[in-house]
Design brief:
The protein is α+β, with helices and mostly antiparallel strands. It is built from 12 helices and 20 strands. Helix 2 packs across helix 3. The longest helix has 13 residues.
């Protein structure tokens, strides 16, 4: 099977076509961008298209674009409510079965194109932790296979996915406003994002010391790991990965690196975050020797604590730092809407970082958008109080 990315100079130089018109999102333009620029589908490649029940029209447009590019599509449908029922009703001994079908698809595919939205943010908020843990552990072989396979993937939707009314309400945002922000951010030229993110990723060298503070109380330091830093500019061709897949997400605009195990020390304070649709207020994580030693929160502390306690111990490890570079993506005033790519956003990751080239293979992960941060790399300020201080 073809697992090597072959791009043309034309695909690298083009900017994304406009994806919104007077009638709303232009699915054909979005599909063209995903297929021909983000994923650079080549003739004869097998492309797995995944989405939810609300994305069927978009998935159809992607299928057509794949065919026009000479690829062969396999369309799979994600049904969240059925996923919930299966989790709740399947006997525990079956929840632990190896996901053989997904493993076979991973070995077969050259490209994955994923589109999705959150229709019910709290769908899994009442799911028993033991059932969720069983399903997570069963998926470990799949996660390891994904981290070693040489496919390309393009995903439409970062935190919260493609905006929906339900998700907007859950983060106290106006749906029309976050939709406008989302689609405008997708339209930023990949070359511009690559230049800015490349400048920061060059600073994220092995052993570089990172220091983070915030007015909310964050005060933590750690070293960058040995894995090469990566960028997300919306094209898989920008991902330099010695092994594993080349991933990109839209809206794009990120530089990210793995954290050296055992180096994180200090405190991370997150005034508000969302976990399984639940609003967690004043989350405080204390780190020693790279791992969480205590966790407190004013709301839903037990849910997070149970998640940590039911997962492998390396979920407690600080494993990733990600810096947002997209100036068109932002948090609307008065809302809690946050996403990886937002200009000046700093996101810290715990647990599994295989997708970023790291060695933490925990069955779980936890991502925290730490707003208003000031971050230095090797003593040089890159983000100051939530705004980019470099590459302006």
């Amino acid at each position: 099977m073809q697992k090597v990315l072959v791009t043309t100079a034309l695909a690298v130089l083009l900017s994304f076509a406009p994806v919104v018109n007077a009638g709303g999102p232009d699915y054909d333009a979005i599909a063209d961008n995903l297929v021909n620029q983000s994923a650079a589908v080549q003739p004869g490649e097998i492309v797995v298209i995944t989405g939810g029940t609300n994305e069927i029209e978009l998935m159809g447009a992607i299928q057509v674009a794949v065919s026009k590019a000479g690829g062969q599509s396999l369309v799979t449908l994600n049904i969240p409510k059925a996923n919930k029922r299966a989790l709740m009703e399947t006997p525990m001994e079956h929840l632990g079965q190896l996901p053989t079908a997904n493993l076979l698809v991973t070995k077969m595919a050259d490209v994955f194109i994923n589109v999705g939205s959150v229709q019910d943010p709290g769908l899994f908020s009442d799911a028993p932790e033991d059932r969720l843990a069983a399903a997570r552990k069963a998926g470990v072989p799949l996660t390891r296979a994904l981290s070693n396979a040489r496919f390309r993937s393009a995903t439409l939707g970062q935190t919260g996915g493609i905006p929906t009314m339900a998700y907007a309400e859950s983060v106290g945002a106006d749906y029309d406003e976050i939709s406008e922000i989302f689609w405008n951010a997708i339209g930023v030229a990949p070359a511009d994002l690559a230049a800015r993110a490349g400048m920061v990723s060059a600073m994220l060298k092995e052993g570089a010391m990172v220091k983070m503070t915030s007015k909310a109380g964050t005060d933590i330091s750690f070293a960058v790991g040995s894995e090469p830093a990566r960028i997300n500019a919306g094209r898989t061709s920008d991902v330099v990965a010695p092994s594993g897949p080349a991933n990109t997400w839209l809206p794009a605009g990120e530089a990210y690196a793995c954290v050296k195990p055992g180096t994180a020390s200090g405190k991370v304070v997150v005034p508000w975050t969302q976990f399984r649709g639940l609003g967690v207020e004043n989350l405080v994580l204390t780190f020693e020797n790279g791992r969480v030693t205590s966790l407190t929160a004013d709301t839903h502390q037990k849910v997070l604590q149970d998640y940590l306690d039911s997962s492998s111990d390396n979920l407690r490890e600080l494993s990733l730092v990600d810096l947002g570079m997209n100036a068109e993506s932002r948090t609307p005033a008065g809302s809690s809407y946050k996403s990886w790519e937002m200009g000046g956003m700093v996101t810290l990751g715990l647990g599994n970082n295989n997708w970023a080239g790291g060695s933490n293979d925990s069955e779980g992960a936890l991502s925290l958008h730490v707003t208003g941060s000031t971050l230095t790399i090797g003593g040089e300020t890159v983000v100051k109080e939530g705004k980019l201080a470099l590459a302006e």
